[in-house]
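--- STAGE predict ---
source: upstream dedup step, 1 unique chain passed
mode: sequence only
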Amino acid sequence: MEQYDTILLGYPNWWATIPMPVASFLEEYDFSGKTIIPFCSHGGGEFGQSITDISKLAPNSKIGEGLSIHYSGGSSLENDISNWLSANGISEN
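--- STAGE serialize ---
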């Protein structure tokens, strides 16, 4: 992990937060000085408390602009993802 400055962190929103395997991953590594950019799928709860929980588990990191995607995706999904990547300075190529 030390070779990366930016981490895209994807997960399903389970009971308004991150799943335990994701929490264990965040506890396992040192994210000090890194940017974590979260994205999640959900059934209507969007991020819930997941951003707060990520911040608590990686307190010395910066949290970038996240993207929450409803399970159904929606007709604007491709455009939403492109805009999100661009907002976080990530190239699609």
